[in-house]
């Protein structure tokens, strides 16, 4: 048990996230991502939430987090901002982070 406590204490001192640093670099340095609308899929809700927070703070405040637990109103926001078949697409959000691959991707991404 003492070993686990030491690991937990050591982990709490880690302030650098190399994966985030690299991902942020991709989002900000690659010309095909700059200014374009992006949809980012992740498997886990906690990862999606973490990414949404980090991206809002450090890359793009116009970032939306969507999952299967999201409301119908939020789903409408996703469609009006990211569905290419919407006649007058909104520009309220530039980046969408979602965990709902099965339902969401089949309804919007297959139309792209």
Would you give an account of this structure?
This protein is mostly helical. Helices cover 49% and strands 11% of the residues. The chain is elongated and about 60 Å long.
Secondary structure topology:
Elements (H helix, E strand, L loop, with lengths): L1 H11 L5 H12 L8 E4 L3 H14 L4 E4 L5 H11 L12 E4 L2 H7 L5
Parallel strand pairs: 1-3, 2-3
Which class do the helix and strand fractions yield? mainly alpha
Radius of gyration: 17 Å
Shape: elongated
Number of strands: 3
**Helix share of residues?**
40-55%
Encode the helix/strand succession as letters: HHEHEHEH
Spatial strand sequence of the major β-sheet: 1-3-2
Strand content: 5-15%
Q: Tell me the major beta sheet.
A: 3 strands, parallel
Global mean pLDDT? 86
How far is it from the N-terminal to the C-terminal residue, by CA? 52 Å
């Amino acid at each position: 048990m003492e070993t686990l406590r030491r690991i937990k204490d050591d982990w709490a001192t880690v302030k650098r996230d190399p994966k985030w640093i690299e991902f942020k670099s991709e989002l900000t340095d690659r010309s095909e991502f700059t200014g374009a609308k992006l949809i980012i899929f992740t498997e886990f809700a906690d990862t999606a939430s973490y990414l949404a927070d980090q991206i809002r703070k450090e890359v793009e405040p116009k970032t939306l987090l969507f999952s299967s637990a999201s409301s119908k109103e939020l789903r409408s926001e996703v469609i009006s901002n990211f569905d290419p078949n919407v006649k007058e697409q909104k520009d309220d959000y530039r980046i969408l982070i979602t965990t709902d691959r099965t339902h969401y991707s089949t309804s919007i991404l297959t139309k792209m």
